[in-house]
Amino acid sequence: MSGDMAPLAMTMGDPAGIGPELALAAWRDRAPDAPFVVFAAPDLLAAAARRIGLTAPIIETDPPGARGAFLKGLPVVPLRNGVEDAPGRPSAANAAATIESIARAVEAVRQGEARALVTNPIAKATLYEAGFKYPGHTEYLGALAEAWGAPAFPVMMIWSETLAVVPVTIHIPLAEAPKALTTELIMRTARVVDRDLHTRFGVARPRLAVAGLNPHAGEGGAMGSEEITIIKPAIAGLRAEGLDIVGPLPADTMFHPRARARYDAALTMYHDQGLIPVKTLAFDEGVNVTLGLPFVRTSPDHGTAFDIAGKGMANPASLIAALRLADRLTR
Known about the structure:
There is one protein chain. By secondary structure, the chain is α/β, with parallel strands linked by helices. The chain folds into two domains: 1-153 and 296-331, Isopropylmalate Dehydrogenase; 155-292, Isopropylmalate Dehydrogenase. Helix content is 37%, strand content 16%. It has twelve helices and twelve strands. The chain has a twelve-stranded mixed beta sheet with strand order 3-4-2-1-5-12-11-6-7-10-8-9, with helices on both faces. Strand 6 and strand 7 form a beta hairpin. Helix 8 crosses helix 9 (226-240).
C-alpha cells in the first residue's frame, strides 16, 4: 500500500490532552479522499467519544486495512503499552504509550503503509519525567529518521496560507538563544527551507526573509552585534549559493501585510519571535510542519490543552488543516 492509496498515520498525542477528541472530531468532519489511521488505545478513544457525545465506531485494524474501514468508523492500530484514561491529568505512566504511538506511526510511513505522519500534541514535561531525552517532537523524529539510515536535519516550520515562519533556535530558554545562534545554523536551516519549499510545496524559487536578533536588527551595532557577526555573513553565504534571501530585517516591521507579500517564509532567530505573529494571524489554521525529514510530518499548531480536555470544547480546525496539508504534500 503506497502513494495515493495509503492512509495518513496519526498519533494519539498525550492521552490526557485533547488529542483523542481531536482525532474523533477530525473523523467526524472527514474528507473521504484523505483517510487516516490513529495509533492509539481503542478503549481511550471509545471513552472519549462517549464523553463528548460523538457516535464514532472504533475499528481496530492495521494500516493497510484503514482505507476500507475509514468510511465505517475510526480506524485504530492498538498500542502495546497501557494508557490511563484521565482527561486533564497528565501522567508519566502514559509516556511509553505516547512514544510508542509516534514510533509505530513513523515505522508505518517507512514501510510505505502510510504516506505521511500527522501528530497530535504531546506534553514534553511529562515525557521528561519518564526519561525522554529529546527536547521535543521535532528532534525525536529526526532521531527516528537517522535510525533507519536517512540523514535528517529537522527544521520546524509553522505554516499557514497567511504566513510561514521558521525559528532557527527552537525549544531552548530565551537567554540561551543568542549563544546557540551561529552562522552555520542559519545557513543549514535556510537551505532546508529553500529545498523543501521547492520540492514539497512547489514554490519555483522560494523567497526567504531573515529577522534580526536584536531590536531594530541591531541598529548598525548600537543595539547588539549578532546581526553583523553572525546573521549577515550567513545571508551573504546563502546568496552566493543562489538563494533568494534578504535580511536581517527588524522583526517588528516584517509581519504586516505588505511585508509578508515579499517573502514565502520568514526565518526568525528564536521561538517566540516567529510563533507569536503566526499564531496571532492564523491560530486555528496554522500547521506545524517538520522540514528536513525523509517523510512529511504535520501537526496542529497548539498544545495539549489539559484545561479543556474531555469537555468537548476542543477545536479540531488546526488538526484538520494538518491533515489537509499532509494530504496535499503527498499527492
